[in-house]
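Backbone-to-sequence.
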């Protein structure tokens, strides 16, 4: 079938993207679903820095590529062997398809699925196929999803069935922003009642981490972002303090607010400097956790003696360090009960043809979790 999809053929375009137009909405061919695959109609797709990093070249990917990795969708057609979904089901798409059979999957760590990682790196679906084409040329899939499109063929392992009473706009948030941010708190930090957090970067992922920290019973939550509006929103969502990370002695200020530092310093901003700040505000015996994906060349000099003498830990958290089929359902239930107010994270909506303008807005740092909403 022929569909419209957002394709990037060259990375590194200059901003503003409204002028350079690195994202082109093209008519492409979408093959029918193969064994273990599903055809879905995309209903809403979130704009995330993981997409922006492909556009600007921070995260090299095989080109051309159809962008998008956070979405809600409706099942349209089932490929051979898919028996646990039905046409019309509402699903959230997950950006790491997990095979269920490799060692990480069997250990309950599907974010580290070996075939899933290989497929994402190659720009294919989990089974190794390309389902997108343009004039005979294969178009690569972004993390097996490519949801900035009218329709997508995805692996069944990329789908989580969700409550159909949830709006598609709300549901899309759970595919990356909430899954990643809340999971870094719930699954990776695993805080005890009354512990403290510093959250550096208040985009969709950082704000999701913040509301999860509130729900977990954190005593002190310090929110750090250069944007004053986001700092005010963080306070409204339950942060106890809001600090401008660019201010003089921001580290000292956070440490004074938290009696020497926080139990968990969370880097959600995607730069070496934000990780360093998160590390420096973490107390003795605490953990610094990053869910951001900076350029592969980004480095941080770790003070090894301090790591030992202060019993520090440094950890990465990918896909929320959890199990998407379990966690997305839980987070949605908490949202519906008023415990995770993720609707407060929703920003502007854009059309598919406005994606370049949408990414300009994201890069400005002013937006929340913007989304493309399909009519």
């Amino acid at each position: 079938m022929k569909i419209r999809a957002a394709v990037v053929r060259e990375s590194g375009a200059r901003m503003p993207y409204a002028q350079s137009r690195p994202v082109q909405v093209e008519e492409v061919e979408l093959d029918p679903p193969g064994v273990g695959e599903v055809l879905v109609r995309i209903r809403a797709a979130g704009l995330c820095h993981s997409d922006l990093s492909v556009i600007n070249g921070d995260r090299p990917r095989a080109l051309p590529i159809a962008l998008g990795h956070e979405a809600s969708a409706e099942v349209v057609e089932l490929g051979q062997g898919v028996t646990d979904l039905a046409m019309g089901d509402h699903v959230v798409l997950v950006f790491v398809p997990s095979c269920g059979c490799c060692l990480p999957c069997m250990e309950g760590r599907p974010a580290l699925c070996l075939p899933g990682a290989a497929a994402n790196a190659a720009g294919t679906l989990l089974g190794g196929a390309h389902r997108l084409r343009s004039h005979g040329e294969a178009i690569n899939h972004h993390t097996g999803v490519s949801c900035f499109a009218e329709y997508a063929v995805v692996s069944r392992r990329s789908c989580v069935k969700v409550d159909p009473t949830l709006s598609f706009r709300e549901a899309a948030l759970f595919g990356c922003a909430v899954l990643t941010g809340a999971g870094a708190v719930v699954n990776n930090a695993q805080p005890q009642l009354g512990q403290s957090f510093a959250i550096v970067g208040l985009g969709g992922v950082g704000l999701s981490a913040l509301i999860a920290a509130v729900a977990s019973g954190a005593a002190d939550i310090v929110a750090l972002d250069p944007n004053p509006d986001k700092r005010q929103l963080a306070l409204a969502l339950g942060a106890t303090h809001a600090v401008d990370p660019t201010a003089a002695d921001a580290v000292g200020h956070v440490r004074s607010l938290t009696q020497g530092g926080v139990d968990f310093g969370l880097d959600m901003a995607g730069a070496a400097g934000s990780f360093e700040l998160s590390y420096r505000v973490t107390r003795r015996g605490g953990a610094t956790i990053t869910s951001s994906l900076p350029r592969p060349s980004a480095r941080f000099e770790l003070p090894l003696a301090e790591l030992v003498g202060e019993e520090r830990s440094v950890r990465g958290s990918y896909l929320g360090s959890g199990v998407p089929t379990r966690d997305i359902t839980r987070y949605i239930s908490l949202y519906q009960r008023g415990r995770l107010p993720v609707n407060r994270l929703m920003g502007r909506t854009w059309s598919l043809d406005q994606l370049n303008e949408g990414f300009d807005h994201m890069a400005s740092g002013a937006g929340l979790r913007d989304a493309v909403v399909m009519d």
